[in-house]
Structure formats: structure tokens, C-alpha cells
Specification:
Blueprint lengths: L2 E6 L4 H12 L6 E9 L7 E9 L2 H7 L8 E7 L14 E2 L5 E9 L2 H10 L11 H10 L4 H9 L4 E9 L6 E6 L4 E4 L4 E4 L11 E4 L5 E4 L4 E4 L5 E2 L4 E2 L15 H7 L1 H9 L3 E2 L4 E2 L8 H5 L3 E6 L1 H18 L3 E5 H4 L10 E7 L5 H12 L3 E6 L5 H5 L2 E4 L12 H20 L4 H12 L1 H8 L3 H11 L4 E6 L4 H15 L2 E6 L17 E4 L6 H13 L4 E6 L3 H6 L2 E5 L7 H19 L18
Helix pairs in contact: 3-4, 4-5, 7-13, 7-15, 9-13, 9-17, 13-14, 15-20, 16-20, 17-20
Bound molecules: 6-O-phosphono-alpha-D-glucopyranose.
Length: 614
């Protein structure tokens, strides 16, 4: 969703701002802009704000920004429209009537209509249809020589969520920011400072960062920064060191980020497991749970809260926890849980699963559970993200930055975290040391098996060419592979815009079978356990009705290969671990279908990587 960049220092601000916005492209956006403090040489040399905005890609903004645009301090924004259409006027930054103050805003101002009326009454004229513009006018209304004081006064009027960054022509070199519900990070450089909604925007310049908390306000100058909290007390900043490397946010020779991230999975899964497999005690070492063994043992149930792909990982996780650790477990959509007045019991362990750690639905649902006394552990990728910080403990999945909107490597890393947690819980209940050792050995082999599954790349590309022009698909699986079918269908929808339904294979006769026709292919995930025969029966039901079948099954399964119209083999392994091998061909299939149809794989229409609004 929307992204913020800010820079103050000796370098040309416009370049750094636009380059930062380029790094934030992956979040999803429809327009972009910058505001820079610039000396008016034609006049008396006083500072003025130059604002440049464009609809469309960052490339369009880059073209619109004069190469020699001077100025060493500025703010930038990528907008994902919520209030008001996608137009140049609605793009950020927004400015006060006199043009002396410019702001960028992420989030939603709920009471903007009332504020707008009040400001119009006092003589302000509004240019855009956005909720954000009220912030510029409010700051201007309160401005009396100190931007931070004016912003703090403006904040008192605002209801809603925000990450705000602003500059004033009368205060050269100063950026002021405020956070409430939308992330803001300070980047500490040598004689220069950065402010952004996401560390990737500044990774090329500094790895020393300070994550702002809700209610905090920051002032930045090239050589210093100052943070105060909602009570106006100075905050002693904690500088964190980002471990992500710049390489991780480059394409490194791949055509797009999604392809790179799919092929990175043997390594990213390895990272998720690294140092966490305890072969001596056949246990998982999960140091961040912040629960004593007794506290963890006392948990009687597990509930996952998540959205999108993370929810699918949660469905797999719950299946594992219930079938292997023998604790009742359910994965729930965060957007549903929050508003259904949930019963929260102290003996339930809640898991908030989120790649970004910023998804509004998941965050609010988690807060609702915490408000009712629940213990929530986070399973997150982004270190320092809001969910990671607000949860009571958790597991970082260490997949590294995921840039493509469609999640791939974060999903398999989340799975890895669930397998480790399952082992921990199972060993606390009735899994023997020996069974634990076997489970760990199988888990250790997963990166190698995923690597082998990726070798089917060329075969899958050929299949994508054959099938990409179909309008509808069914993705079918049972047991642990049902969530994988859901995830396969979601991947195809997200990036190729082909209609795809994920369904439990046993459920097709209760409705979806009516969709089966020669034009509607079914992708079957066939396990190698007690559900294999049943899945084959479902496959035959589809074939009998003229539906084309693409089957994914163990490389040894010659029977399935013979029944299916097309067959994708995956390396054979214990069925408990098949989610890892089965998701790979589905990710590749979606990717190659989108390529075949000429879609923008990394930034699909209408979608955002991190959805910070409800
Ligand atoms: C968005 C993204 C999805 C993602 C979901 C949950 O919809 O487009 O790819 O699965 O949010 O995101 P999270 O960061 O919480 O895992």
C-alpha cells in the first residue's frame, strides 16, 4: 500500500527520494510524488517547496523530476487510492494553501469530512478529494515557527491511522514525522537522515534504523534526530541493525522478483530452520516464544489469526498441530475474528501469522485477542514490524525481504516455522524421542527436496503455455494438501487474473463439479498416504465428465501419471511434508501463466503487498 520516503542531508534529495520510492514499488501503488525544499535563486534565495506528482509508475515520476532539481531535504510518497480517484491532484504530497508546508500520509483519517468543513469555514481551499489533505491545512493552521509543535497540535484533531511525514519551507533541513498505526522508520546515516515506511527504501544508504512506536513524533535534521512520545516526553531511541543485504532486494539476473523468490526457497527454508533443530533432544529450539515450558505445555488449543497466503500457511499449521501434536487447532481469517466478539480463553495459544507484520486485519484481530487476556505469538518475516513488536513472543521466519506482491518464499518459511512449532508441542505431549528424531531428519531434507521440485521448471512452463488461455480452473486437494490447493488457486488469481477456485477434493461433488467441462481444467494434488485412493476417485469423477486433469503427485506414482492428462512429478517424501513439495509446481504454474498472458507479475493490478487498511 502507500509508501513514504524522506531525506535530509548533503545529497540531492530528489534522487534519493525517487530511488527510495522505486524500492517501495512492490507495496502496490497507483501514483507517486515528491516535495523538496529548494532555494529560489531568481528571488531572494529564500526556500520554497517544489512539489512534483505523477499518476502511474515511478518511471513517470522520474521523467517528470528535472535532473538538476536542487534541494537537500524532502519527502516522497507512493499512493494506493482509498479516498478519491487516481489522479495527479489526489497524489501526495499535499500542501497548505500558501504552499509553505507539504505532507505525505499513509493510513486513513476517519473524521476528515468534519475537519474539512471546519477548515473550509476558516478560509482554506482544498484541491484534492483525499482525506490526507486536511493534515496539511491543519498543520498550517497551527504553525507558529515550529513544525513539530504544529504537527502535534494537528494530531490532536485526527481520528484514524497514520504515518505522516512533513516539511516546511521556513525550516530548512528539517523533516517531522508521526506514527499511529502505519509504520515509520528512521534511518540513521553519517551526516544524513532518512524517514520511510519500510526499511527497504533506505537499505542502500544505511542499516542503522529506529522503528517508531504508535504515538511517537520525530524531528530529523542531517546530524540529529529527536523522538518524543504522546505525553511529549523525550524517547531514548533504540537503534537496530538491519540484517538484510542489499542483494536481497535486487533481482540478481532473474526476470522478476517473483521468479527470484520462488527459486530462492531452498535457501530461505534453510534459514528458517537454521539453528532451530535440536537433534540431541529431538526438539525445536524456538528462543523467542517468551513462554516457559510449563506455560507452553499448559496450552490446550491453538488458534491462528491471519489473512491471504499467511492464512493458508496457518491452515497447514493447524492441521499439523492437531494431527501430530494432538491439540485442537483452528486457523481463522483475521477480518472475521475481530468482529464476531470472540471467546478468548487463557489456555488457548493464539498465533498471529503475517509476512509483513503490518496487515491491518491481522493486527486489529490480534489486539482484540490481547485485550481479552489472550497470549498471542507472532509468526512474522519483517523484523521490527508492528505485529512482531506487539505480540507476546514469536518466531521470525527469516525468509529475507519478499518484494513480489504474490507471496512465495515467505509461505514456505511460515510452513517451516509451523513444522518446528508442531515438533515442540508434540514432544511436550506424546511424541517419542525417536519419532521426534525422524521428524527432524525429514524436516532437514526439505530444502533439498524443494530444490529438486524446482527442476520441473521447463515442464511447467510448457504446461502453462498449453493452459494459460483457459478462463476457469479448479485446484483440488485433501487433508494437508487442501490449503495448498487454496494457495495454488490464489497464486493463479493474483498474478494472471484467471478465475481459479481452490476446493477440498471430497467436496467437489457438492457443487463445483457442475463447473467441470472441457474448458475448465482441474489441478489435482495427490498425496501418497491414505487419502491417495480417495483423491484418485475424485480425479476419475472429473475425467468422466470431460474435465482436463493436471495431476501433481510423487514421481513414483505411475498410476496417477497414467490417469491424468498432464502430470507433474514431485520428489517422493513422507506425506506430512508434501505441502513443501506440492506448492512449488503451483507457484511456477501461476508464474508461467502470468508470463504467457503478459501480466505484470510483481505488481498485479489492484493488489498491495502490505494491506494496512481494513
Ligand atoms: C495481501 C498480500 C498477500 C498476503 C496478505 C497477508 O493481500 O497481497 O500476498 O498474503 O496481504 O499479508 P501478510 O503480510 O499479513 O502475510
Amino acid at each position: 500500500m502507500c509508501g513514504i520516503t524522506g531525506y535530509t542531508g548533503p545529497r540531492q534529495a530528489s534522487r534519493i527520494l525517487v530511488e527510495g520510492l522505486k524500492r517501495l514499488e512492490y507495496r502496490g501503488y497507483d501514483s507517486a510524488g515528491i516535495a523538496v525544499q529548494q532555494e529560489n535563486l531568481a528571488n531572494d534565495g529564500s526556500i520554497e517547496l517544489t512539489v512534483i506528482k505523477q499518476v502511474g509508475k515511478i518511471a513517470a515520476l522520474r521523467q517528470a523530476v528535472p535532473k538538476d532539481l536542487a534541494g537537500h531535504c524532502g519527502i516522497g510518497h507512493t499512493r494506493w487510492a482509498t479516498h478519491g480517484e487516481v489522479t495527479q491532484t489526489n497524489a501526495h504530497p499535499h500542501s497548505s494553501c500558501d504552499g509553505r508546508i507539504s505532507i505525505v500520509h499513509n493510513g486513513i483519517i476517519e473524521n476528515y469530512q468534519a475537519l474539512k468543513e471546519m477548515l473550509e469555514h476558516s478560509g482554506c481551499s482544498f484541491k484534492s478529494e483525499t482525506d490526507s489533505e486536511v493534515i496539511a491545512h491543519l498543520i498550517s493552521y497551527h504553525y507558529d515557527g515550529d513544525l513539530e509543535l504544529a504537527l502535534k497540535a494537528a494530531l490532536k484533531h485526527l481520528k484514524g491511522t497514520f504515518g505522516i511525514s512533513c516539511i516546511c519551507a521556513d525550516e530548512p533541513g528539517r523533516i517531522v514525522g508521526a506514527r499511529n498505526g502505519s509504520p515509520l522508520v528512521v534511518g540513521v546515516g553519517e551526516g544524513e537522515m532518512f524517514l520511510a515506511s519500510d526499511v527497504t527504501a533506505m537499505l542502500a544508504h544505511t542499516k542503522r534504523v529506529v522503528y517508531l512506536n504508535d504515538g511517537e513524533v520525530v524531528s530529523l535534521w542531517p546530524h540529529e534526530f529527536r523522538i518524543s512520545d504522546s505525553d511529549d516526553q523525550a524517547v531514548d531511541p533504540k537503534i537496530d541493525h538491519v540484517t538484510w543485504e542489499l542483494d536481497a532486494i535486487e533481482k540478481e539476473g532473474f526476470a522478476c522478483y517473483m521468479e527470484k523468490e520462488i527459486f530462492e526457497q531452498p535457501d530461505s527454508i534453510e534459514r528458517a530452520l537454521k539453528g532451530r533443530m535440536d537433534f540431541e533432544y529431538s526438539m525445536a529450539k524456538l528462543g523467542g516464544l517468551n513462554l516457559s515450558k510449563k506455560e507452553l505445555h499448559a496450552k490446550q488449543r491453538v488458534r491462528v489469526i491471519a489473512a491471504g497466503t499467511s492464512w493458508h500457511a496457518g491452515l497447514v499449521g493447524c492441521h499439523l498441530i492437531e494431527s501430530i501434536a494432538r491439540l485442537p487447532a483452528l486457523a481463522e481469517l483475521a477480518s472475521e475474528l475481530r468482529y464476531r466478539n470472540p471467546v478468548v480463553e487463557p489456555e488457548t495459544l493464539y498465533l498471529s501469522v503475517s509476512q509483513s507484520g503490518e496487515t491491518a486485519d491481522t493486527l486489529y484481530a490480534m489486539r482484540e485477542v490481547q485485550r481479552r487476556g489472550g497470549t498471542v505469538l507472532g509468526i512474522c518475516n519483517v523484523v521490527g514490524s508492528t505485529i512482531a513488536r506487539e505480540s507476546d513472543g514469536g518466531i521470525y521466519v527469516h525468509s529475507g525481504p519478499e518484494i513480489a506482491v504474490a507471496s512465495t518464499k515467505a509461505f514456505t518459511s511460515q510452513l517451516a516455522a509451523f513444522y518446528l512449532l508442531t515438533l515442540s508441542l508434540a514432544r511436550m505431549h506424546d511424541m517419542s524421542h525417536h519419532e521426534g528424531a525422524v521428524f527432524l531428519q525429514q524436516l532437514r531434507d526439505i530444502p533439498g527436496l524443494v530444490k529438486k521440485a524446482l527442476e520441473q521448471r521447463d515442464r511447467i512452463q510448457v504446461l502453462a503455455k498449453k493452459y494459460a488461455h483457459n478462463q476457469d480452473f479448479l485446484f483440488l486437494g485433501r487433508g494437508l494438501l487442501y490449503p495448498i490447493a487454496l494457495e495454488g488457486a490464489l497464486k493463479l488469481k493474483e498474478i494472471s487474473y484467471i478465475h481459479a477456485e481452490g476446493y477440498a477434493a471430497g467436496e467437489i461433488k457438492h457443487g463445483p463439479i457442475a463447473l467441470v467441462s472441457p474448458e475448465t481444467p482441474s489441478v489435482f494434488l495427490v498425496p501418497n498416504d491414505h487419502l491417495r485412493e480417495k483423491t484418485i476417485t475424485n480425479m476419475k469423477e472429473i475425467k468422466a465428465r470431460g474435465g482436463p486433469v493436471i495431476a501433481i503427485a510423487s514421481e513414483k506414482d505411475t498410476e496417477v501419471a497414467a490417469i491424468a492428462d498432464d502430470f507433474i512429478p514431485v520428489p517422493d517424501c513422507d506425506s506430512r511434508f508434501q505441502p513443501f513439495t506440492m506448492i512449488i509446481p503451483l507457484q511456477l504454474f501461476a508464474y508461467f501463466c502470468a508470463l504467457e498472458l503478459g501480466k505484470d507479475v510483481d505488481q498485479p493490478r489492484n493488489l498491495a503487498k502490505s494491506v494496512t487498511v481494513e
